[in-house]
Design brief:
Keywords (chains A, B, C): Cell membrane, Membrane, Transmembrane, Transmembrane helix
Order of helices and strands of chain A: HHHHHHH
Strand content of chain A: under 5%
Subcellular location (chains A, B, C): Cell membrane
Protein name (chains A, B, C): Trimeric intracellular cation channel family protein
Membrane topology (chains A, B, C): Multi-pass membrane protein
Oligomer: homotrimer
Radius of gyration of chain A: 17 Å
Family (chains A, B, C): Belongs to the UPF0126 family.
């Protein structure tokens, strides 16, 4: 794989952070949090997955604390959601579609960054998944609710699959963009199909012994 | 700014940690936690903000794990609250006033430490705020309740404002203590006014779409 | 103390991670989480204490992300619990006994690793305790419930005592295995007695002022 990252990458990153932040801000609005809670939940949802990854792979301070542009995306998302939440709430279906693209993007960039920092293939794929789902998990912990990703939503498994494709192909001759499109495409496509067809992750069967 | 830190700084730090720890220990007592839960909630509330900051800015191990005095403050607060909680609980108003001083102190020291570790102005101000509010957020997560800082309490915004003043003035000719007093004074003064005048942070208006 | 670590250590580590992971997976099954939630709760419970320790003492990336074997133990535990949870749930008493051995093991290895990374005696003992109890705390936070370790269960105090013995003896002439057996034995023995005799940690007395 040849690395050929450009401003396209930064723009895609910012779009992904913005979409994730909108989902966090909407949860905060619905919980009746104040303006600060809305901004924090926006920020933690948009940036939290990358923060967890960067702390674990020793890439601190996280990129979002080195480049002010990454802080502007959740700020804008939080302010928009605070003011226009009735309209944005009605667009939830569109937001879920954009969110699937954000997930595909984050599992790719997260896995590649982990490889750059010397992690093996399996841990790097896990870090790709964590980058994609970590922000939503922090959002749900801060909102005192069970993480959505545990409740049957088919979300983490596409992220892990996409990240797995990325790490498997990262050391081939394929170009950066080919690898990213294959891994991110698998993740986003699978996630969109799951939304469209109401696919659910399996839950345990049989009596739950207490 | 000239740096002229002394034992005064350490004493102030310990007072701030102690006051924050008392607030964490009281929450644990009211939840019916055992003695260990009281000590852990005291410690996480008193030291947690600094831990989060130090992990994010790569200043690990955190200072509180390098200097045993920082561990004694939450230990003392936890034991006191465990034994004397009915009396301490009645002093809650006084504790809130002391807490406002702790907040002012932590937003100053947090912002300055982040600058020392090379962060830019905006991230350093954020880290000052995180130092001030992070312990209380961890306390509320560990107590399975929505963080108080999201529920309209005017708490985080004064901390961010105080930290903002500190980073804005840090590279001027003003002395360390002048910068600290201006930033910390803004934070503490604003917070005390908010308690006294019952100021609240704005919440979203309009129907909350579900 | 002379260090003489061998594959025995790795095997013991894997057993401890596996047992902790089973307890996390069972909580997830009882909450009705999907297969992904079961695996994540298994992984966070088995590996989370070590993750927190490694992030705090600056030993990142954590060992479990450097060696794929550490990831296999929670995977196996999660799959087993997902499929056989009615049978495993009935063995809870046996699992609690194994868990006491895991606790004794983790408080020893956690304290020794912290000493290796230059921490002082008191912080190293704390890190030993954190290694033992951190996974269970993360499990309970992710399951939206009050950490079990705060609710009177005599769990953390044996872990701290065992880790304390380890750091106190680590610089003597005793062999690695002697130190480990004394510290881990104190922790595990105390914990088993607490289960057997229904010992509880003390809770605050008197009226809880609100």
């Amino acid at each position: 794989m040849t690395t050929d990252v450009s401003t396209t990458q930064v723009v895609l990153d910012l779009v992904g952070i913005f979409v994730f932040s909108i989902s966090g801000a909407l949860v905060a609005v619905r919980k009746g949090y104040d303006v600060f809670g809305v901004l924090v939940l926006a920020g933690m949802t948009g940036l939290g997955g990358g923060f967890i990854r960067d702390v674990l792979i020793d890439a601190t301070p996280p990129a979002a604390l080195e480049d002010w542009r990454y802080l502007m995306a959740p700020l804008a998302a939080g302010v928009l959601a605070f003011v226009f939440h009735p309209a944005i709430g009605r667009m939830e279906r569109s937001i879920n579609v954009l969110d699937a693209f954000g997930l595909g993007l984050f599992c790719v960039t997260g896995a590649l960054k982990a490889l750059d920092y010397g992690l093996g293939l399996v841990p790097a794929a896990l870090m790709g998944m964590v980058t994609g789902i970590g922000g939503g998990m922090l959002r749900d912990i801060l909102a005192s609710r069970v993480p959505a990703v545990f409740r049957g939503e088919l979300y983490a498994i596409p992220a892990l699959a996409g990240a797995g494709v990325v790490v498997a192909l990262a050391h081939t001759d394929l170009s950066y963009w080919t690898v990213a499109l294959l891994g991110g495409g698998l993740c986003t496509g699978w996630r969109l199909l799951a939304i469209w067809r109401h696919w659910r992750a399996p839950v345990p069967t049989g009596p739950a012994s207490v």
